[in-house]
């Protein structure tokens, strides 16, 4: 081998032993492991603390956001930006991860959906495991019964000012709370809920709730992209393929308003030119503004 070639090889070998670049870490964030005892699964909580957290004894509103693998940094960063540049009060953000060892699609289908669809042809994203559905009630009990006490014990949160944040299937989980235990959260931010799921089962749940209750004490902000509608020429139905999500959400919000529940406040915003993938930051920003006050 020529000396120059040998030099190149040695340099490459030396370079391969260098330490990998450091990961980017969000400031004032923590990761906590938590066991869901009844579910016999392990999860993580991603916690973002406000800049002033170490400076006093203040208790902060707390935002609980599902699909945290995607949404946690978005919620954390937008909440901080609204505080610094728009005067909104500071918050603590708690992101709920997917179950350890589960694929994201598998975990959210199981944990966020209210039922097993009566008709479906879904495939699992986890080889060797059939897709799972319909554990929203049990997962919700994990949040209220285990996550809440843990967060209340470990952090200075105001548990009288809890906000639920979800999108798509995550909003189905929010509706599960809303139509069973609405006081679990003081405010709900629900983006692009998959109301077509299981042939529109949440419309059935809403009707059943209204038939047996005189009030629904909750504050809800609904948001959706204006492009989440049915393509021209197609007939709307309660199926994923033929769903008009904008029309579905307008119908659902209209039904809630028609009940005239004295304790219910809902707001609906359609963000034109946004689709299912792009709308979440807009829903979040306006949903926070609908609840959080300006910093004093």
UniProtKB/TrEMBL annotation:
Signal sequence residues: 1-19
Domain of life: Bacteria
Annotated GO MF terms: hydrolase activity
Composition bias type Basic and acidic residues, residue spans: 108-126
SUPFAM superfamilies recorded: alpha/beta-Hydrolases (SSF53474)
Disordered as annotated region, ranges: 107-126
Keywords of the record: Hydrolase, Signal
InterPro entries listed in its UniProt record: AB_hydrolase_fold, Esterase-like, Siderophore_Hydrolase_D
Annotated Pfam families: Esterase (PF00756)
Family: Belongs to the esterase D family.
Protein name in the entry: Alpha/beta hydrolase-fold protein
Originating species: Janthinobacterium rivuli
């Amino acid at each position: 081998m020529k000396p120059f070639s040998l030099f190149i090889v040695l340099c490459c070998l030396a370079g391969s032993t260098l330490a990998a670049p450091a990961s980017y870490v969000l400031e004032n964030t923590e990761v906590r492991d938590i066991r869901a005892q009844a579910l016999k699964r392990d999860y993580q909580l991603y916690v973002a603390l406000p800049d002033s957290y170490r400076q006093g004894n203040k208790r902060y509103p707390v935002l609980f956001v599902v699909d945290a693998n995607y949404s946690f940094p978005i919620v954390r960063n937008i909440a901080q930006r609204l505080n610094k540049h728009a005067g909104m009060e500071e918050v603590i953000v708690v992101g709920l991860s997917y179950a350890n060892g589960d694929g994201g699609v598998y975990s959210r289908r199981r944990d966020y959906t209210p039922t097993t669809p009566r008709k479906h042809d879904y495939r699992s994203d986890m080889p060797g495991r059939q897709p799972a559905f319909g554990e929203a009630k049990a997962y919700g009990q994990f949040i209220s019964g285990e996550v809440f006490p843990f967060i209340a014990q470990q952090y200075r949160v105001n548990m009288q000012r809890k906000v639920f944040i979800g999108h798509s299937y995550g909003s189905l989980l929010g509706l599960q709370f809303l139509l069973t235990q609405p006081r679990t959260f003081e405010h709900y931010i629900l983006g692009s809920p998959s109301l077509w799921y299981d042939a529109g089962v949440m419309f059935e749940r809403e009707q059943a709730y209204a038939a047996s209750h005189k009030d629904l004490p909750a504050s809800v902000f609904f948001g959706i992209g204006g492009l989440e509608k049915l393509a021209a020429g197609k007939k709307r139905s309660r199926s994923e393929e033929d769903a008009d999500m904008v029309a579905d959400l307008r119908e659902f919000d209209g039904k809630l308003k028609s009940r005239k529940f004295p304790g219910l406040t809902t707001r609906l915003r359609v963000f034109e030119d946004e689709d299912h993938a792009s709308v979440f930051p807009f829903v979040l920003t306006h949903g926070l503004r609908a609840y959080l006050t300006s910093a004093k």
